[in-house]
Amino acid sequence: MTKPDDKQSQLRGLAAVDEVLREPAVEELLERFPRDLVVDATRAVLDRLRQEILQQGTEVAAEALTPAMLAPWIEHLLTVAVTPSLKRVINATGVVVHTNLGRSVLPLESLEAIVMAAGNYSDFEFGLADGARASRQDHVHDVLCTLTGAEDALVVNNNAAAVLLAVAATSRGGEVLVSRGQMVEIGDGFRIPDILAESGADLVEVGTTNRTYLRDYEGAWGEQTRAILRVHTSNYRIVGFTSEPKLDELATLAHEHGAVLIDDLGSGALAGLEIFTEEPAVSASLDAGADIVTFSGDKLLGGPQAGIVVGNRDAVEVMRRHPLARALRIDKLDLAALDALLRLYLDPERAIERIPTLAMLAAPESVLRARAERLRDGLIGTGAPPEQQALCLPEAAVEIAASVARAGAGSLPVTEIPSLAVLVAPPDGDAEGLAARLRRGLTGVVGRVHEDRLLLDMRTVRDDEVDELAACVLVALG
User: Fold this and answer.
1) Domain containing residue 412: CATH number
2) pTM of the prediction?
3) 415 φψ region: left (φ > 0), alpha (ψ -120 to 50), beta (else)
4) 179 and 56 part of one domain
């Protein structure tokens, strides 16, 4: 334990800011970085050392307090300060649309569209034919109507915003009927009741958690009822003793009373993948009579963050003219990416090939095995010179095994997608430690720990990432 007198001695030995700034190594930093930034970093390092000295039982060596020894810490802080915070990650979790890792990876066509829109002026809200102001919605309106069969379309910044705008525009000051079993939490603590409360409409719950009938909606209908909201429970399933009205029955009830039916589909599955059979189709909702259908751009659609609205012309127009529409509008980069993505869907086969989310979900076992074998060979040094093989893992430490992948982002919650993974048994037996070092690498790697081994699922590792992933693991193993 450090004595009080020792602490005071160490504090007196701590260099002053001006003294540190005169250190040659720090003077070099002043030439590379703004002076105010260097001063702030210097003070931060000194404050940290001062705290360590004052902490009970902490002793800081005298040589660590010299200006020369402080310079590397100051440089580190400055480098962190000027380096963008977002960091590239290799997703080896098997969760395709991983919310915490940024959800969908965009296709090349969307990336090119973003670069064009970001680096140039564009006809974002300008009509080149007549030289007059235009709407940003024009860029995606027609293609959305073509893909879904809707009369009208509108895009905002995310699906929660789309639901909020739909309810506010159609039902503010009135009531909205929602089945109790659809009162979902959509992530990070945001719940459907909270969103509806902000719309200015009153929520009326009908039915029970597992069983709701058409008569429940009929019994709850009142003079102030303006809409029925159906929320697709994309992030969970109620199974067993369940019941809910058909969508066309709800549409008939709503239209008989001059109200609207809003159908929040959430995931937005437009592709014809076999695993999407349990997801409600947008066109089916429209055919059943839904006036407004909303879904996300960055879930199963495979695009940027966006809230997509399609429906009948009158209902969508009310949303377009509502004051909230401007506050919730999509920005030019997301719109450019979405525009390019939607064009790919005009050719369904090309969409599955070009859109990473769809390609990952549809990848056959043969593709996953080829990736797994490449990764295994890289980890054990197959074909490498003897001096490199010495840095690799023994063959017994690496295994290819069956795995289960997930769609992610609350989509297809009970659907298990067969996959293949490479299991790595670290020599020291510390799989958690290996996983932590991989996350902190120059390129972050996120996998799963399973029975004291690191599991790297190949469904979410792209072909051009396999060799890099092998290198990351070997570096992390040291």
Assistant:
1) 3.90.1150.180
2) 0.89
3) beta
4) no
